[in-house]
Amino acid sequence: MSLLKASCIYFVRLPNPFQESKNIKNYFAVVNVKDVFDFSEWRTLNVRDPKEHGIVPDAIRDSLRENELFFIMNRGITVTAESAQFDNQKNLLTLEFVDKQLHGLLDGGHTFLQIQHYLESLGQQPLSNQYIKIEIITGLDRDQVIDVVEARNTSNQVKQTSLEELRGTFNKLQDALKKERYSGLIAYKETEMMKGDDGGLVSKPISVLDILTCLICFDVDEFSDQKHPHNMATHKNAVLEHFAAYKDSGRWDAYYPLLPDMLRLWDATWKYFQECYNSTGGKFKKWNWVKEHPRKKKALHFLGGDVDYSFPESIRLPMFAAFRSAIEKRNGAFHWKEGFEPIEFFHKVAGPRLTKTVVDALGEAKDVTRMTRTESVWAMCYMAVENFLMKEAVGSSAR
Fold first, then answer.
1. N or C: which end of the chain has fewer CB within 10 A?
2. Domain check: are 185 and 311 in the same one?
3. Which helix (H) or strand (E) holds 327?
4. How do residues 236-271 score in pLDDT, each as one tens digit?
5. Model pTM?
């Protein structure tokens, strides 16, 4: 529990004729920016991590520094709390926060961040009188909090991932990856930030949508040797909708033990792509969709290490999805088939055929999106992996 206190020049309770019986109360306060509450530890409900720069934060910063109408121009900050108590003798407002899933900064994260920066930049300079509106809502339950968050953020469309994160859609996924070294690099909501090497804020480099795409590519409950995720995997919204639709059914629980291996394989298809393709006689770096990064290499977050080239990641999807033919269900969970080593298999066995298949298809399609949404390309990759697996199985039985 936390009790946050701030001096307040105006405080009022807004009548709420429809929800009084449910104990939902709505208050408004006007606070000098120098006295604003410190919501730093209570920002879980704010679906966007505030950005340092951009149209919205820049406009807030400029009006805060230069415009006497800041109080009118800025829509303020909205919080939910367990209770709000106003001492009209001391003009002191006290907010009680108990549960981070119910209480805290709900809207206005950019405003709060820019106020912090504004106060830090002034140092010992005298503060000008700038004021901020704060709306306080008490008595909301979990579902009502989510509804209010969604409604209050429609003026600048919130990405669906942020709302799903707030609903707890990714909780089991987070548990499945929490021991991996890259777990803190995954952004589960819009513009989620972390501290960079220089101490400043940078965007987290891994999107949860990329992880969901990998997971959906292995969904053998939905896809087979005759049906492939060529449309779904190349549309991020469709990936999220498909994942969310089955989150309560337990479908994904069986896949989670294999997920870290899937992600390492995903990176391996990047790491070894050039080598595998060139082994077929191709010249990988001649293609105009390949970019070289000799000085600032690209990190392989799942596998470890880095590479000095990049290309549209969707090119790898048909190859990667073909490996769902190499998994089987044992004791209620998915595993690789007995004795199967996916990275070695890609690098030493199937990689040359798979890379040549997708590059040749891309050469014919002359467009990355068109190629990756062509089901026959996914089918060829799937059959290639199946055939290699059968040959290995025959070879093993012969020995």
1. C
2. yes
3. strand 327-330
4. 888 988 999 998 899 999 999 999 999 999 999 999
5. 0.68
